[in-house]
């Protein structure tokens, strides 16, 4: 395995996914009191990133599943999820806590498909960066990038959970997480839409 490619892969992943750490910490904090929530966040992160990789690899080989003009509209996913999280936070505050169904089942926090949708939408711009790199790396180099990226997704999940469980951070997220999560998701969604020129913005 070429250590030069490994180093480039680590650097490329870190640069293109630094914002995911904040989102992951918020997701982990949201599910802190729910059984199996951390597992669902990790699963969702892997699903979302695997989808990013699949689209980037396919595009590097010349197959375009997502036209470039469609990428800005991925911002609708985190925007919708942010609005849903805001409504849920408002409902819980108004009616005194989460729905009884969540409490009975022990389920709660973000589901894997929610996390995957945010990860994929937030990584729409990553696809544009990965495609030319993959196309010039060849099949062997592309495989190295994919393995390193998938390993680093696990590191990112561990880091996100670490931040979410630090006493000071956890206290802040417990107090403000219900406000921060919708705000971050809506902001991400709007940035993707505006920067991509969706709807002529």
TrEMBL record:
Keywords: Membrane, Transmembrane, Transmembrane helix. It comes from the Bacteria. The chain crosses the membrane at residues 6-29, 41-64, 144-164, 176-194. This is Cadmium transporter.
